[in-house]
Amino acid sequence: MSSILFSEIADVLQVKPLQQCSNPSIARLLTDSRKMLIPDSTLFFAINTAKRNANVFIKELYDKNLRNFIIQSVDDIELSLFAEANIILVPDVLGSLQQIAAHHRHKFQFPVIGITGSNGKTIVKEWLYQLLSNEFNIIRSPRSYNSQVGVPLSIWQMSEAYNLAIIEAGISTIKEMSRLQKIIDPDFGLITFIGDAHAEGFESVSQKINEKLALFTQAKMLIYSNDDGLLQEGVRQFVKTQNPGMQLFTWGFKPGADLTILQTERGQNGTLLTASWKNESFKFFIPFTDKASVNNAISCCCVLLKLDIPADKIFEKMRQLRPVEMRLELKEGISNCSIINDSYSVDINSLSIALDFLSQHPRHKKHTVILSDLFQAGQPANQLYKTIAEVLARKKLFRFIGIGNQLSLHQQLFSGIEQMHFFNTTEELISAIPALQFRDETILLKGARTFEFEKISQLLEQKNHETILEINLNALRHNFLTYKKLLAPGTKLMAMVKAFSYGSGSFQVASLLQHEGADYLAVAYADEGIELRRAGIHLPIMVMNTEAKAFESIIANNLQPELYSFNILKAFKDYLLTQGISHYPVHIKLDTGMHRLGFEKDDIEKLCELISVDISLHIVSVFSHLVASDDISQDDFTNHQWKLFVSMSDGIKKVTGHKFLRHIANTSAIHRHKEMQMDMVRLGIGLYGINPDAAMQKKLQNVTTLKTTVSQVKKVKKGDSVGYGRKAILEKDSIIATVRIGYADGYPRTLGNGKGKMFINGSLAPVIGNVCMDMTMIDITGIAAGEEDEVTVFGEVLPVSELASWASTIPYEILTNISQRVKRVYYEE
Q: In percent, how much of the chain has pLDDT > 70?
């Protein structure tokens, strides 16, 4: 691991420290205060955002013994409170991080491959790592660390222990790539695919191409596909005007490329490609059939050719390519455990990321880490495992389980952990699982592929039902931040996690929202709030459907009730009186037109009389609910509701004697009626990637994907029937697949007999016959599909809104009806 003295960092930045009390060796760069591992050797960059001054995190880090900081201003900092701190003041903290990384990159002479494109960057990077690991000791970007912050953190991992770097770069708008070029400064470049991803920051595809090409201003060679006419033209102009000496290596399916793909033969197990290079043909096989994988594999083949790897070795290497699991998954486990499965990559950097994820999910007080030996770590084993032991000790684990000869050899380094177990092989651990008695704990699995940790995961997972609801936490975070950026300064955000977070799972979603800075959570009933409290959620939680029988639980779990009628208000006040409790936080619901719950206009005078003399209640917020904020034809009524709400809440404001939050804007109103954001907004279905506004929908990402598999395939003759009641009589000989999902799983029975469709192997297959309780039949005639093939019920390729339309309902109903027997898998990419 590389390091640099604090004084040297000041020299690189050409500034004098604002304050320097010592001169530590800096080995770790930190941009997220929640991810601090070893304070002694860490430097924190206080990078401000539009919503937050990062100086607010300095005291928290200082109290945790971190002493090294780079800041942009002295606002909100009392330097006398940080007498032992080393502080550098700069005009641009992010620029300073990038400047330090650029300085670090140029200490090393080994080649750097820079990868960019709209899609496929991470796949190509990981495949190149798989293909070249025997020839090179490779440092690569962890996961998809390709942003303005991620790239510097990736480059910082370079050291003399490596002889090849593979770094990916992603941009979302103009002028970003020129900053990344100075940091990566690649010797060799590769462009994967130019598509629509992240297109909103560019005026045209041509502009996006030109911006991405800026990464290769000093590169010696560029690999790309010349089948893309716009990219080809962009590269020609770039070489002519920006980098005349850069060599080009092209590939394509059309004649004229350096590597020409002559033929692709797709089979059940993969694709055989015949290629021509230097007037000679050769073949290679990849165990994938989809177009994206084929294109990504060809890009990798080009790199191998330019590194002079013989064709026979290329064939052997390419046929062994493995899927890249770019996701860290959270699943329900046996005995009330949670399982975090992260075998995407195993190195000190990805371990740190996985430990961050572990700390963000506080459902259980007990945390266990199961870790295998690390390979190609770039440092001596004793130093590596000493660092890992220090990191784990700071996480205050309940239990550590090490698997592999090296971990067993260095087990004495882990003495700071309460419980330790070491095994030489995965099989030894599997035999010991009954004796280890996993219960009420969160277990992180972090193992190299050769250790086959999937065997451990299968034993520890709770459910084996092959119908799975996947929840993309990256997309959830993206949607949350997308709406948060729309808020006026000072406006708070309440996230709706009622109804099991719209079917997505309450505490997992709540943990992410808590971590990302939500101000409030809202649940429908007290039971949901109690579950969140038990899972370690400490945010304020509003209970929307307050019931008298739940008063005791509400107070015991520090929940905040919504009071919507005189009866419930009186009942709650009386209960507080019997308990001797005063100033308990509550939320007052006003009815401005929904006519569901809430005090009406004529109730306000009486309500004000009651609360003006009352000390048992402390009003935290007053709110109402918009009826049709998404419908332009109802905007007059929406404005009527808002004005009525302002008038009614003003009346309450006059008598309370204190300030409270006012909120009426729901998901659609956040962007359609910005003037209604007021003190707080409530984000619901938009958080899960659904918005009826087409422009807003494009900014959101799909969060939930419902998948199942084919259990059996049958040839059924013309005239035969399929399913209960003989509702489907075949008009021709057909191929029918039975899939493992039915109305007991939440698939609507109304989607039977051709109304619904499922996505399988690139095609939509109609539902045939009635939907059964546990199974559904689909017509796959003409589709290349077989038993155990994956079927998408809804997701990115088949939006849940489309499914809801077929079923004559709304996405809310589809999502919330997904049965609890369907296994939820939470993942981050």
A: 96
Backbone angles phi, psi at 42, to 5 degrees: -110, 140
Distance, C-alpha 47 to centroid of its chain: 21
Bridge partners of 446, per DSSP, are 371
pLDDT of residue 457: 87
Minimal CA–CA distance to 828: which of 470, 562, 503, 537? 470
Residue 574: CB partners within 8 Å, gap ≥ 6? none
Determine the straight-line distance between the first and last CA of the chain, rounded to whole angstroms. 25
Backbone angles phi, psi at 174, to 5 degrees: -70, 155
**172 vs 699: CA distance, rounded Å:** 13
Distances (CA, A) of 710 to 720, 760, 761, 766, 790: 21, 9, 12, 14, 7
**How far is residue 371's CA from residue 403's CA, in Å, rounded to a whole number?**
6
Residue with tokens 């589709």: 783
Distance CA 828, CA 798 (A): 21
Residue with tokens 């007037």: 279
Of 494, 435, 465, which is closest to residue 623 (Cα–Cα)?
494
Contact 524, 547 (CB under 8 A): no
Q: What is the signed CA dihedral for 426, 431, 432, 435, rounded to 10 degrees?
A: 150
The type of residue at 562 is E
Banded model confidence at residue 741, pLDDT cuts 50, 70, 90: very high
Q: Are 174 and 201 in contact (CB under 8 A)?
A: yes
AA identity, residue 409: L
**How much is the average pLDDT of 673-688?**
94
Amino acid at 809: T
Q: For residues 349 and 346, what is the distance between their CA atoms, to the nearest angstrom?
A: 8
> Is 142 strand, coil or helix?
coil
401 SS3 class: strand
**How many CA atoms does the CB half-sphere of 585 hold within 13 Å?**
15
Angle of helix 205-213 versus helix 229-241 axis, rounded to 10: 40
| Closest by Cα among 381, 446, 437, 431 to 410 | 381
Q: How far apart are CA 78 and CA 333, in angstroms?
A: 47
Beta bridge partners of 680: 492
| DSSP code for 119 | B
Mean pLDDT, the chain, integer: 91
What's phi and psi for 133, nearest 5 deg? -65, -30
Distance between CA atoms of residues 112 and 2, nearest Å: 17
Of residues 597, 602, 592, 596, the one with CA closest to residue 565: 597
Active-site residue list: 498, 724
